[in-house]
Amino acid sequence: MAHPQEARTADPERMLGLAMRRGAMGRCPNCGEARLFTGYLKVKDHCPNCGEALHHQRADDGPAYVTILIVSHVAAAVMLSVYTIYRPSSEVMIAIFLGGSLLASLILLPIIKGAFVGLQWAKRMHGFGHGGEDRPNEP
Q1: pTM of the predicted model, to two decimals?
Q2: For 100-126, what is each residue's pLDDT tens digit?
Q3: CA 124-128-134 angle, 5° bins
Q4: FRET pair for 117, CA 20 to 30 Å: which of 7, 22, 42, 60?
Q5: Is the pLDDT score of 139 beyond 60?
Q6: b vs e for 77-98, b when ≥16 Cβ sit within 10 Å of the residue's Cβ?
Q7: Dmax (CA) of the chain
Q8: In Å, what is the CA distance from 135 to each residue of 22, 93, 121, 124, 125?
Q9: Backbone region of residue 28 per phi and psi (left: phi > 0; alpha: psi in -120 to 50; beta: other values)
Q10: Domain spans, the chain
Q11: Please, which residues have CB within 8 angstroms of residue 53's CB and are 6 or more apart in sequence?
């Protein structure tokens, strides 16, 4: 019987950057060909091209937190700059930055979720490696 450490080294190398780029582009982190999502954020159970099981992903709230972090930091810097230079009214600031933040969040969220799925796949997290299933059966 093979030692568990030896079994891990026998697995093919998964390139982290490539897997995250493929996921961010909405493609399967394994083959990069098939679409990762069935809708806006729903990840397919299996890749129709290479057959890779994708149901193991557990992105949960991580992509939303990262999206909020990025959008809020960029929006705060831009809002301060715009207010300092142009001094628009409060109504104009609210309308522009509320709409801009909403649009930026909707654009970034699937990109960041795809990157999270690629990260989990490349690092063999949550059942993506060694044929193990670590997600409990759902009722």
Answers
A1: 0.83
A2: 999 999 999 999 999 999 999 999 998
A3: 105
A4: 7
A5: no
A6: eeeeeeeeeeeeeeeeeeeebe
A7: 73
A8: 24, 45, 15, 14, 11
A9: beta
A10: 16-123
A11: 45, 46, 127, 128
Q: Which amino acid is at 42?
A: K
DSSP of 72-121, one letter per residue? HHHHHHHHHHHHHHH---HHHHHHHHHHHHHHHHHHHHHHHHHHHHHHHH
Please check whether residue 14 is in contact with residue 124, taking contact to mean a CB–CB distance below 8 angstroms: yes
Burial class (CB in 10 A: 0-12, 13-18, 19+), 113: buried
Angstrom distance (rounded) from CA 133 to CA 25: 26
User: Cα–Cα distance between 76 and 74 in angstroms, integer?
Assistant: 6
> Per-residue pLDDT tens for 4-19?
454 445 578 999 999 9
DSSP 138: P
Q: What is the pLDDT of residues 22-57, one digit of tens each?
A: 999 999 999 999 999 999 999 999 999 999 999 989
Residue type, 92: V
